[in-house]
Structures are given as C-alpha cells and as structure tokens.
C-alpha cells in the first residue's frame, strides 16, 4: 500500500514527510521509510560525546568516522563508486614519506610545482575555497534545560564577495564557534553566521578580519548546466588536510529531496565523488564558473556515484531573500496535497476534457490557498504555464520537471495565478504564497527547545529532533501518526507532550509516565 500511495500522491514543498534528518555521531543522515537507501549530508565530525541509542545503532551500521576510513568494497559510504578511503589515505602518506634525495629529481619536482601562466585561472578559483572548522553544541531534547557535550566538525566554504562566504546550513548547525582557514595559510579566522536556510541547506558567513581577504578573488556564479557537462567539485574532505579536487559529469537535473531541510527543490545530480567534508564546497564548470554547492549523496547498496549539488538558481534565491528582508524567510509553499490525473475515468468524472491538471486532495488550513481552493478542484495552470496530468511542467527546451519547481521560483508573499477547473467550469484565482507552517517542526528555531516543569511534570513541544532522540518506539504509534500526517490549524500550534516525570513526593505514582500528549479539557 505504501508503494501505491507514493505513486498516486505527491506533495507541494514537502506536505508529506519523505526524508528525516537525524544527527549521527559523525554526520547528518536522512532515511526513507520505504527503502534502504538514504541521503547523507556530508560534514566531517569528530565527536567526543557519548552516543545515544540512535547513535549506537548507527555506529553498528558502519556510520561512524572510523568505519568511513575503513570502507570495504561493499560498504563505501555510497559516494564515489568503490574507491577505498583508507587505501587512498595510506597511499597519500606513502607518497609524502618517500622523499627523493637525487638532485636532478629534486629540481624536477620544484619545477613541476611552479604555476604556469595558463594555470593562473585555476589557482585563483581554488584559492577562493576555504576550510570551515565548527564547534557545535546541540540541545538535549529529552532534557531541554541542558545541552549535550560539544563536538567539532570540518567542512568547506567559498568566497562570494562583499566579505561573505557560502557553506551548507548543516555544517554550522547549533554552532557555538565557527572558524575558517584559507588555502596555503596556517591562520584560522573567526567567522560569523549571518543567515541559515534550513530548507535549502545554505548558510551565509562573514569574516571581519581584513587580513583574511587580502588578495582574495570571489567566485563567479554560472548558469544551470546541461546534461553530460563536465563538473569539478572542490573542498576539504576526509583523507587529508589539503584541498581536494574530484571530477565528473552532470547526470540529472530535477526537483530533489533536500535531506537536511526535508524539502523538495531543484538539484543537480553528478557522478563526481562527494565525501565527508566536501559539504559547502563549490562545483565548477569547465569555464571556471561556480554552478552550485555540494551538499549530499544518495546512499544505497543498489546505486553508486550519486552526489548532489545545490544549483545557483537556489543559491541566488537564498541570497536575494536575505537582501530583501535582512534575514532569510524561506521558500514558499502552495499548501495543498495533490494527486495525479492520469486515469481517464477520473478525468471524465471531474469533467476535465484535456490530458492535463492535478487534483487538489487536501488544503492546509494555515495557507492562503485555503481561502480560494477546495478539495476536488483541478489545477491546470500556474502563472499561465500548463500543468500536465503527472504534475509536471515544461522545463528548458525538451524536458519536463515537477510542478513544485514553479512554486520554488517565487518568494514569500508573492502572488501566483492559478487556472482551475471546478465542477466543469474553468476559472482563475490568485493565491499568496508563504512558507509552510509545520505542526511538528523539523528544526527548532533558536536552537534550544522550550519546556515547562510543573510539580515535576516536564512538558515540551513535539519535534522531529525529539522523536529521533527518544526513538519512534517510545513515542507511540498514535502520536507518531499525528506528527507525520496532521496539519496545523493555525500558526503557532504545537503538539505538547508530557516528556517525563521527575520523581517527587508530590507526583508519587506517576514516575513511569512519559511521552504522553497533553490535551485541553
């Protein structure tokens, strides 16, 4: 039945949960409920905290940092085919250790290291890529009044001008300190996080030190590439301390699930190796233009060489949003659950005479669409762009892409004109697009969860990080179903649970109660 639902329904900007982000002892993972495949946000972490029950399972499954350095042919972290990180690292140490004493050979090595005039352009764009050192302190969602033990991670970032850097949001999540270091420099500079786009997995950093920017040349953004275009990924992944370069081609361009933000946005699939630590690093075209930001890989026993890059269209949307509002407001959502209209009998029943349109199955109460759309309406156009019966729209010359792509081109507060068929009659309506309101948030704003303790009873809002920390089994099926499928009736609505009871004589007999929903009488 799960497969049938997946084929029949699709959501607009994640109106149903497809991926879940959880913090592991090394990196962020997002796993599908119906597949062994998973998407991994690649930040290299060196944790020193004690693992929870979730982390114990992940360590057994080969997710820890040590196992990633001892990958076998069958468990290669799903990144770049069947290349062994451990073997690469050993080879690197051997090459550094084998220094030649022959004078002629020594002179030859020095000559090879000199930058030729035709390679100056390459050296310039490589120098714009920096290494990110982040210290994280995550909240303890089970004990919301305290934080967990801090840990460190490394990632990549690159210069975009005006004293700013771009990296991934998951690289600096729950940050307490962020430092960056340029290529060929041994000095680390403190960076400030200006904005984090959780849904698009992008973060904007700034460095105040003028010394850091001496001789710096920001990268230039390029256009969306074509299939089979060459792509080069640059960053600071595992296997060494210096900059790393991997090459491949563009394999696919489509609306992709973003693991960190549980959202669906335009993504570029490539076959170039993306390893832990590449997160936040740029991907270049043959012309030396930045075409996107490396951020995740698809992990499965059945596939290999599937990495993902955030295209410049999504990056530009993030930057424009920040410039417009002085903060990041997020990608908008239409706020409806849609069904494909491939079945001729269903189209005839809805009086849709053409092979186009998608059926409105559910409208979120908090969206502006709830004012103008009804269940049973058929959306046939979006801003005069026809919507196919599979929920796709024309894309470039001879391609089609998911309907959600048009929505992601808008900003919060923009108005979209929808062409709909209602009871056989065609009409046009206007809808204001706003970010979706989640009843159970994927990320807690402000970092620290809220809580209330009364007579030893600990109350806290239900959130995805809390579900991950407590394990789904302890949450209960009924509460878990509410978190997955219920919609918020108004902005700010929460599911408040009794997390635990701190034993005291005033609550004698209630010590074993935990993870129970609090209801109004």
Helix/sheet category: alpha+beta
Overall morphology: globular
Would you tell me the overall average pLDDT? 79
Major sheet characteristics: 7 strands, antiparallel
Percent helix among the residues?
10-25%
Number of strands: 29
Q: What is the terminal-to-terminal distance?
A: 36 Å
Number of helices: 13
SSE topology sketch:
Blueprint (H helix, E strand, L loop, with lengths): L1 H7 E3 L8 E4 L4 E4 L6 E4 L2 E3 L6 H8 L4 H4 L16 H13 L5 H11 L6 H8 L1 E8 L14 E11 L2 E4 L7 E7 L7 E9 L4 E5 L23 E6 L8 E15 L4 E8 L11 E3 L5 E10 L7 E5 H14 L10 E5 L3 H6 L8 E6 L5 H4 L5 E5 L2 E2 L5 E4 L3 E4 L1 H5 L6 E8 L2 E8 L19 E3 L2 E5 L2 H7 L1 H4 L1 H9 L10 E6 L14 E2 L4
Explained architecture:
The chain has about 525 residues and is α+β, with helices and mostly antiparallel strands. About 20% of the residues lie in helices and about 30% in strands. It is built from 13 helices and 29 strands. The strands form five sheets. Strands 1, 18, 19, 20, 21, 24 and 25 form a seven-stranded antiparallel β-sheet that branches. The longest helix is centred in the middle third of the chain and has 14 residues, at about 310-325. Residues about 1-120 have low confidence and may be disordered. Pfam families: PDZ_3 (PF17815), Trypsin_2 (PF13365). Keywords: Hydrolase, Protease, Serine protease. This is PROTEASE DO-LIKE 2 CHLOROPLASTIC. InterPro entries: DEGP_PDZ (IPR041517), DEGP_PDZ_sf (IPR046449), PDZ_sf (IPR036034), Peptidase_S1_PA (IPR009003), Peptidase_S1_PA_chymotrypsin (IPR043504), Peptidase_S1C (IPR001940). Belongs to the peptidase S1C family.
